[in-house]
Predict the structure.
Amino acid sequence: MARLARLDLQPDERERLALQLGLVLEYVGRLAEVDLEGVQPDVPVRTNVFREDQPDRPLSPEAVLANAPARQGDYFRIPRILEED
Amino acid sequence: MHRLAAHQLLPRLRDRQLRARDLLEQALGRIGRLEPTLHAFLHLQADQARAQADRIDAELDAGRDPGPLAGLPVALKDNLCLQGMPTTCGSRILESFVPPYDATVVRRLQAAGAIVVGKTNLDEFAMGSSTENSAFGPTRNPWDPGRVPGGSSGGSAVAVAAGMVPLALGSDTGGSIRQPAAFCGVCGLKPTYGRVSRHGLVAFASSLDQVGPLARDVRDCALLLGVLAGHDPLDSTCEDRPVPDYPALLERGVEGLRLGIPRAFLQGLEPEMATSFEEATEALVGCGARLVDVDLPHLEYALPAYYILAPAEASSNLARFDGVRYGLRVSGPDVAAMMRRTRAAGFGAEVKRRIVLGTYTLSAGYHEAYYSRAQKVRSVVSRDFQEALARVDLLVLPTTPIPAFPLGEKTADPLDMYLSDVYTVGVNLAGLPGLSVPMAPVRGLPAGLQVIGRAWDEGRLLACGQALQSVRPYHLAQPQAALFDGGMA
Amino acid sequence: MSATEAAGLVFETVIGLEVHAELATRTKLFCGCPNRYGAPPNSAVCPVCLGLPGVLPVPNRRAVELLILAGRALGCEIARLSKFDRKNYFYPDMPKNFQTSQYDMPLAEHGALEFEVGSRVHRVRIHRIHLEEDAGKSVHVAEGRQDVAGRLGDSDYTLVDYNRAGVPLLEIVSEPDLRAPEEAAAYLEALRDLLRWLEVSDCKMEEGSLRCDANVSLRARGSLELGTKVEIKNMNSFRSVASALAFEEVRQRELLEQGGRVVQETRTWDEERGVTVSMRGKEHAHDYRYFPEPDLAVLVVDRAWLDRVDASIPELPAVRARRYRQDPGLTPAQASWLTSSRSQADFFEAAGGTLEVATWMANELSRLARESGIDLAQGRLRPQALAEVLGLVNRGTISNKGGRELLEHLFREGGEPAELVERLGLAQISGEDALQEEVLAVLQDHPQAVEEFRSGKDKALNVLVGQLMKRTRGRANPQVARNLLAQAALRGEEG
């Protein structure tokens, strides 16, 4: 799970988390008691909310990169990617 | 001055008895004195606020109308984006993040003439019920600084309760406005889902989050809600519906209103809280309301459903915090390692807990048992509310089972902390509006009455709160601690 | 199966294609940033497509319309109720680390595309078409040298540009109905032509507005089960698609014939070496943890909307080509060429839609377009002008050659045909009186040719005509000239 969530966990963190999660899952497992015969999840009421295909001003590259931890020119710079998506 | 509500300050500002700049300086002074103890704020923007106040004063002097909130100091929960100021969400991972845009609600406040004084403390990413999960230290309850103010909008509730500012914005996903309002003795409203724009509110659980007002009294809440509510083309979940004149609806009273009480659900409520609740309901009967027992048979499942759905959405919403584009970056040999280390260092324990929980309940093999099931339970809970609110006009119950608990008391056991949300989360699942107004204190600590209404029926909610306040003005009580004496009146 | 079992079996190739086409909208799918190729890095980015905290998506109506249009043109059923879902995974070119896509309720399903390979008509079923947002682009940099197509793992660091993040994409998934690499390439071309025709996408593989991944498997001919499928990625041109599939076909067949088993995996096409290569590190199947996008409303396409879109579908190329073969009776090749683009077909019809127009377009105009590098649609020649030119030629006002000259002028500089004829002096001299003098002069100057003609050598007349054309600087109407010369020669009018 930690890998899926891109979270590094220390061994003691992992242990504690597993324990706590176990308790929470046990608690939320109570939902199994509910009779859900024929129940469908609610469909959101709002339908067809759109915007028109008209352009808005984008941010300037400076504003885009203003919070960037690392940049090179007008690009974001990151360490190399090892795995394909 | 700090004892006055916004609606009392406004006329004084308008007829120039009071200058916006002076009001602001008083607020800043009070903040300066109280902050070392209470720690309600994460950032202050004194200079910008002063410039704003001067502008408002100039407008008012010239006889112009800068808006319905002209000259009122306002505090914003630090998960609302204010351009040019840090928006940290109480997290190390966003400690340095400065948004290049304003949240829609912020723009509306400014257009209404309000003066943003600063950003308030919160549980990290709004996940928590005590504001102890902030990476920057907890906020303390002004009624007893050894106790929590509630969460996640603890900072905003304290800013109002301690008389620092008359108005504040919070956000509510499972009770995060209502519960701190109850713990701090102020009024807090979670609007109907879709009433107020979420554009600029850092998302926790997208289908549950709402921005709402915290204020000294119901009238102020109504005033602030009227400014915040309304359509926003930048938020597809924000409905395009006319905004009623909420302050005008306050005087409707509760004559003839049927108030539903989910008695079965309140079994086991501690006696003093039960007494306070009874006093409040009796007061409302005295105003002409009728009490009706109602049943919300699946309400006990609201909390477990919430703790599946909210973390699931959160795990997805928080995936963007990875050190690539903004915020904290902890370096690594490759980008995946960088992301993992950044998130490990940047997120606190509660956030990590919920991310992992949310990832789990969405993952293949568990999706059906947890996430899908919780979705269905949600609609069942929602149906319970609809059916109850077809038989009565409003539901009333305590906002919380207990008053503010001591700092550190519940941090060891997350489940224990989650249980304090038991009376509030169902309202978010059903998307309904909920208001907390002060009722009789419990063991000297504030307690809140929660009023829940039909979707879009905030007017009736506020009228009920107003009725209670008119006969039981607990909202006028001020925290007694010696700290607050000697403050300017 | 064993090698002995495999030997003697005839294998059938089964191919399915997954195509992504960038929609030709002005703005991105969920925000108003411009949807433009080649902009400077991070210059078409806003808080929404950058995935800043607090932002929310709002869908572009035109993107949905274009999908419905493409779906209907491909004979799909359009879902009455449809939604967006979040596809969750981490990758640095995805600002939110989830992609807003469609999972179990796509907008369109169950269509088909017909196309020809040689003279055979193929029909490939379309499984589904859905809408999703594109990711940004990464540039992998190694040792100071920028290598856009660089392989991962070779680079030192990566640069990311989010201009493309949020651009609307159609994902078109075919059923595994293709049976050969050339078929797959033809399918892709037909799909491209159709999407361009509808102006849904400009489908340029070289710009990335058309991308293709393939699934290939082999099975014994006659078998109903599908073999183990291999996904092939990184085919960046139509030719690559054909080559990669051809290679993969052979690789899998050889493997099976030797008694081996095909591994279900993803392989990347290496254009340089002409081979597919296994992409290791894909052992973990992605768990995308799909759930409905809570920030977006559901999509309801009602009858009225569907009818409006259906009414707006232009006559499709195949139908138009068929019509041209009937009237004015073009050959299949001519019809196919004319309908390869809508602007070309429209031009043809606006210019009169006759056989003659088709011929002149195929011969002259395509040459002019090629030589000048300017598209017919971008050129200055109006279809009505072409019609006028042909009229002038047919009436004999100008010669064929004059017509070609006139067209070249009109194509490059525009203008009015009649006016240009005057200015350029292209008018033929057709009047007998006007030519009489020249006729006599030519006959006088070339008695030998006249003699030869009189004595039956018809070819001698050509010489005389040639001379007359020279004398008139090509402006004599050759037909009239020929007649006059012949008559005069025979009558002995030279003097």
